[in-house]
Fold:
Amino acid sequence: MNRESKIRVLIAKPGLDGHERGARVVAFGLRDEGFEVIYSGLRQTVRQIINAAIEEDVNVLGLSILSGAHLALAKKIIEGLKEEKADDILVLVGGIIPEGDIAALKEIGVAGVFTAGTSIREIADFIRAKV
Amino acid sequence: MENDRKKLKEAADNWRKTVLDPRVERFGLKESPTRFYTPLDVEDHSFLEKVGFPGEYPFTAGNNPFDFWRAYANEAARVDYRPEWGGAGQVGKYGGFGTSEDYRDYLLRMHSMGRKGGPNIAFDLVTQCGYDSDSPYAEGEVGRVGVAIDSFRDFQVIYEAYTGDLEIDKVPSNFTINAPAAVIIAMYACLAKKRGIPLEKLRGTPQNDILKEFIARGTYIFPPQPSMRLFRDTCVFCTEHMPMLNINSIGGYHIREAGATRVQDLAFSLANGIAYVEAGLEGGLDIDDFAPKITFNAFGGSMEFYHEIALQRAARRMWARMMRERFGAKNPRSMMIRQPITAHIGCSSTTLQRPLNNLARAVVGGMAAGMSGSIPGAYPPFDEPLGLGHSMEAVQLQLDASRIMIYEAKVADVVDPWAGSYFMESLTDEIEEASEAELEKIEKMGGAVAAIENGYMPSSVARSAYERQRSIENHEEFVVGVNCFTGENEIEVNINRVMEATYDPERMKTAEERQKVHLSKLKRGRNGKKVTTALADLKEKAKDERINLVPSICECVENEATLQEICDVLRDVFGEAQPIRV
Structure:
């Protein structure tokens, strides 16, 4: 695979929560797996994340959410991407997600949910299979 | 003596040749999977110098021969004491949600159930980041991970639950707040003033540990240097006016949970501690006037039982030496690491997979705690990784595990049971040396603030987090039920999670709207001119680095300026912290 055709991933942290161990580890890991990875840094608004995903022309948007606001945030972001006709972007969610909420996330269009204990390889394989 | 040593060395060599090496060879190994320690491993060990007695310098063996809880352990068993309810003179369970009315009502309900500890307040992220509930940044976050505080009004509403027998000169308060700590401390002072309670009677602990926010937790507002000026101002203000209040609570825990190694945790925590001590000195205080009021939240923990005990021993010794030799402290309390717990496993050691296993893990941490100078607390409850809120059964199991360690296993009947162990003394030395070297590196950069500004500490933590992940994925480290023993013969042990309804979900849902209504009412009803004057005065004073800002912040608070208005004025002068790229 040449450089130009590398899969592009934006790892983003919506909201004010500052726990970024997971986001950073996944960003490092996917880079080592051969993806082009951009990490948004902390305290990104929904609008900032949608804009960044479009401007950076990413294939995958990974949201790291530990604050309990995953349903509301994922919904807003997916709706925003749709409005911008960017709903071909694969949206993934990682973080503290109660098992009962996983189906609801998938319902609103999240392609994959990865909670604690997931290996980077699983995420990488999932992305490669879907993109 | 020399003769003994020679004899021991010969015996050790002989043992290696005749017992160890053949066994290693027999099993086809490259090296022995175990180690055995002898006096040769701690050759220059001076017991008095390195360990000493519990309650005496260098405090390696502990801050005390026994703690308060140990003195009354038998009585506690006879009266069914529940420590998490908080008794008179202690803080209650850490919590906070919704608007100040919601949290006040929750506290009143706790009181009616006999849980009368002082407020131990969790603030929502909006407050932690210095915004008001009507800020665009606040959307969806108001009252979520803690209570929303926009102004002095909200603060006073919470304290409507604390009057009479629970007046603020009788119960202490904890504030888990960092970047806007100066504002919350000012609110506490203003509350006392309004109630006619002398400031010197106030007790409690503001977390007030901004440096670890840059390294690990991410709720910073201003750049590191002006943040330290605010720390200095609170340190001086507390020392001069509220001498019973702790100044801060330094957290290595957050740093380790963010991915730091044990040695990084210890070195970075001590580097932060040095920066806080230097800030107090720069504020003109005498070391023994304020150092006894510096506390530690906790260092991080892990499943490595021996190492966590050694870390606690090394930490106490290093801090004590530093305080005495470098800063010239004379009061023993200045030299102690005052923290509520010692060792534990750290929440990041718990697993989502087969969560009941976390009880076994927490017991290992509790044993390490009991053997390193604190109550053998089996922390956290096993359902910690399943999301916010511990179930009643998880809390019961946690409490009972600790009780079993105390009353049945009698873990806490000996202080520092490892003192003098060739292995433990050698491991303590090893951790001390490695942390010392790391600390020296930071000192050479110019200290904690410089090592944040140049990205060194945050990047090191991020790198260590990734290395740990890789070592798990490569099976260099094993985590039961996560990367090993996950075959089809393993079964999922079922759990029920019975939750005690604590926070009303309906109130949670409407908190943001209700909070915004209060805020706009406040803004309409207050004396706008007084607000503007107080904020303008704060701005002027903020520009002069020598001035203590807490009195001006009190002025703003009393005149009903909002938390964000106060922080915005300081943002104008100090600038905002930039996210750290790693």
In short: Chain A has five helices and five strands. The mean pLDDT of chain A is 94.
